[in-house]
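Milestone M4 deliverable, item 7.
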Amino acid sequence: DGKTLYFVRGLTYNRQRRSPNNQDIYVTTILEDGSWSKPTKLPSNINTPYREESVQIHPDGQTLYFASNGHPGMGGLDIFMTRKQENNTWSDPINLGYPLNTFVDENSILISPKGDLAYFSSNREGGYGSLDLYSFNIDEKFKPLPIQYLKGRIIDAETKKPLFAFFQLSDLKKGNLISQMQSKRGNGEFLITVSNSTDFALHAEKEGYMFYSKNIHMDSLNLSKDGFLIIELEKIKAGTFVLENIFFESNKSELKTSSIVELKKVLKLLQINPQLKIEISGHTDSDGDDDLNLLLSNERASSVVRWLIDNGISGSRLTFKGFGETKPIAINNSEENKAKNRRTELTIIE
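Output delivered:
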């Protein structure tokens, strides 16, 4: 995901390893300021008082493979698999079994992106030296989760020139950050892995530009002829922009948790550009009473402004207004068009 590192650490004394038979798996993540978080040890159902090593997290971001001589096995170092659960706990490790694991050492497993082929090392009989490389087809129960790849290109909306920019991918349902990285210098391109079954919010940002926000549905992507998702960043100027990832409870003005990622982007835009003043406007579809729609849209716009003020933005830089159903951007003749009209907009005043 571009922000998480798994590694092995052994007990040391004066920078000398005390015992190669006592080492554990740790994880650390990149923080917003670019520094690494304090490493944390994976839980005791994975780490043992003995030796864990050769850790690999698959591109699915959830399936972890490692070698250990501390779990029940065939003898020596065996290869195991565990999977991160939705509540951020890890499943109990599963031994990949014979004939992959034997009474000698097996470690350093690498799984192909498709999850069907693996490579590992072993000092079993019949090799050419201490450790030799082997490959095998992975049994279905040990395969990682299905993934697909999304490649994109970030460009200037006006000049169409590629941009070196920062972007994030978030799970729309859970609101958690899945991946964050930067596009390549020179061509503005990126390549990320995503789950087959999740809808995403994609955010891109660069100083001097409006942040970009879009819902990504993998089964209905609009790609260029060469297969890229094109992200066009607009330079900051007076104008109105739809905040696509602001969500409210049905017929209420309470913000959903899934809106926080988008709200933080608006917050960062205002922090980076302290001279900006904006208006937040709320809009509804044509269903229901006109007056109630007007009131609801005003309260929803107010909720966004209130969140920004609560997070440190001066109220003198913010205004809000509800327009109800008076400014549709599509004809209210289908659920798809009505969803477009139910929107929150940001207007740069100066």
